[in-house]
């Protein structure tokens, strides 16, 4: 089975830079993959992506050797099974609020006797090389998203879940949950209470020997997150890159008239 490039980076003390794919298109995924990200995450929760398209995106990413990940839409054994059978080597699950949620997530990603994942890695066994059945649990990465007040109250319990590889912070929902609508919704939090909450999640994850990931909206904030100690940062999304660069190009051309 293919080795997990992100695990290899972590083993060497390095950080992983992740790109985010919300546009359901294999060519745009191929373009992003060719830019040199350590991993790319296909977003099946908020992205305009269905399962069949996600598989095509994984296939397109394969030419560049980038490590494929997926964010599923919700905690469900069928959701976990499908993306892993489809070839994802990393998994992000939203709205993990309790230790029981985290334990369920881990069990869905592991074969018996360590979990309840049904065996049938239809594409994964081909795309990820021989030996998938014996090596998948050592290579796959499982992230639980912490993004609610309930999850913050259960942070130690979630982070201490055996088999969980990391916590992925969703700053938009976390801000809504902790502050209501006192602040704008968005990624790159500057409010002291939100920065403290994000750092607390990272500290708790590291205390329990697991990794911390953060969704950011800019290269500058991603760099700050790395300085704080985050092990994986999402530094760019296909939607934002397309929108911002298109807008900048248009403004520049209009300004040259």
Automatic annotation (TrEMBL):
Enzyme class, UniProt record, top EC level: lyase
Coiled coil region boundaries: none
Protein EC: 4.1.2.52
Entry's family note: Belongs to the HpcH/HpaI aldolase family.
Gene3D superfamilies: Phosphoenolpyruvate-binding domains
The name this protein goes by in its record: 4-hydroxy-2-oxoheptanedioate aldolase
Domain HpcH/HpaI aldolase/citrate lyase intervals: 20-241
Keyword Metal-binding (UniProt): yes
Cross-referenced Pfam families: HpcH_HpaI
Cross-referenced InterPro entries: Aldolase/citrate-lyase_domain (IPR005000), HpcH-HpaI_aldolase (IPR050251), Pyrv/PenolPyrv_kinase-like_dom (IPR015813), Pyrv_kinase-like_dom_sf (IPR040442)
Keywords for this protein: Lyase, Metal-binding
Source organism superkingdom: Bacteria
One Gene Ontology term, aspect cellular component: cytoplasm
Organism: Devosia subaequoris
GO molecular function: aldehyde-lyase activity; metal ion binding
């Amino acid at each position: 089975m293919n080795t997990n490039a992100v695990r290899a980076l972590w083993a060497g003390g390095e950080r992983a830079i992740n790109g985010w794919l919300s546009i359901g298109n294999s060519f745009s995924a191929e373009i992003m993959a060719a830019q040199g990200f350590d991993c790319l995450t296909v977003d099946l929760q908020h992205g305009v992506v269905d399962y069949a398209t996600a598989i095509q995106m994984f296939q397109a990413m394969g030419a560049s050797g980038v490590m494929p990940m997926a964010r599923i839409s919700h905690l469900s054994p069928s959701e976990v099974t499908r993306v892993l059978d489809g070839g994802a080597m990393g998994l992000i699950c939203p709205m993990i609020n309790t230790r029981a949620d985290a334990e369920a997530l881990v069990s869905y990603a592991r074969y018996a006797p360590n979990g309840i994942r049904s065996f049938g890695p239809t594409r994964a066994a081909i795309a990820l090389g021989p030996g998938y059945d014996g090596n998948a649990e050592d290579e796959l990465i499982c992230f639980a998203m912490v993004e609610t007040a309930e999850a913050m109250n259960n942070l130690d319990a979630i982070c201490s879940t055996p088999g969980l590889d990391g916590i992925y912070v969703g700053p938009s929902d976390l801000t809504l949950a902790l502050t209501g609508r006192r602040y704008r919704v968005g990624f790159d939090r500057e409010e002291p209470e939100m920065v403290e909450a994000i750092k607390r999640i990272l500290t708790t994850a590291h205390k329990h020997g697991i990794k911390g990931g953060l969704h950011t909206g800019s290269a500058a904030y991603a760099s700050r997150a790395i300085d704080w100690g985050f092990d994986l940062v999402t530094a760019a999304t296909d939607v934002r890159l397309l929108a911002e660069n298109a807008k900048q190009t248009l403004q520049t051309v209009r300004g040259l008239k």
